[in-house]
Design a protein that fits this description.
Elements (H helix, E strand, L loop, with lengths): L1 E5 L2 E5 L21 H5 L4 E5 L5 H4 L2 H10 L7 E3 L1 H13 L7 E3 L6 E3 L2 E7 L8 E7 L2 E5 L12
Parallel strand pairs: 2-3, 3-4, 4-5
Antiparallel strand pairs: 1-2, 6-7, 7-8, 8-9
Length: about 160
């Protein structure tokens, strides 16, 4: 999970979880600490997901539950078409309905508060994997997510 903040506005990129190591008996999932985001819930403009693997989307329902518990309106979630559908299924399972899910495509920037956000196609082991370029008046930050070198990408 990466949190970018500018002018008191926040964009979150990826909300993954980790699986326990063999010595963590009885632990099912390892989640990030959401305290900062919970305290700043009303400042979150968007959650952007690079791809649909659990280490990038698995903690999303837990984060949204924390934000919702504080009475905040949930921020919109942006990702490629496949990750959006994977997330929709995951959120249905957790009975989280009051969130906007928007499928985005490379080359079509969208706004997240003070950031202009653009998805950049990446080769990975799952379709609809993207890097995320976040631009504000100070410059551009590129978050690649996961990628692989592939001389013959399928898409």
């Amino acid at each position: 999970m990466t949190v970018l903040e500018y002018e008191d506005r926040i964009v979150v990129v990826d909300t993954g979880l980790m699986f326990p190591t063999p010595d963590q008996l009885g632990i099912d999932l390892v989640l990030p600490d959401f305290a900062y985001l919970r305290d700043r819930a009303d400042d979150i403009e968007a959650i952007v997901l690079t791809h649909g693997h659990e280490d990038h989307v698995g903690a999303l329902p837990f984060l949204l539950r924390e934000l919702r518990a504080g009475g905040s309106t949930l921020p919109p979630i942006y990702a490629g078409p496949l990750p959006i559908e994977m997330v929709r299924s995951k959120l249905d399972e957790h009975k989280i309905k009051e969130v906007t899910l928007e499928a985005v495509h490379p080359g079509n920037p969208f706004d997240g508060g003070p950031f202009s956000i653009e998805m950049v196609k990446m080769a990975h082991s799952i379709p609809d994997a993207f890097a995320v370029a976040l631009t504000c008046e100070l410059g551009t930050t590129l978050i690649t997510g996961d990628y692989k070198f592939d001389q013959t990408p399928v898409d």
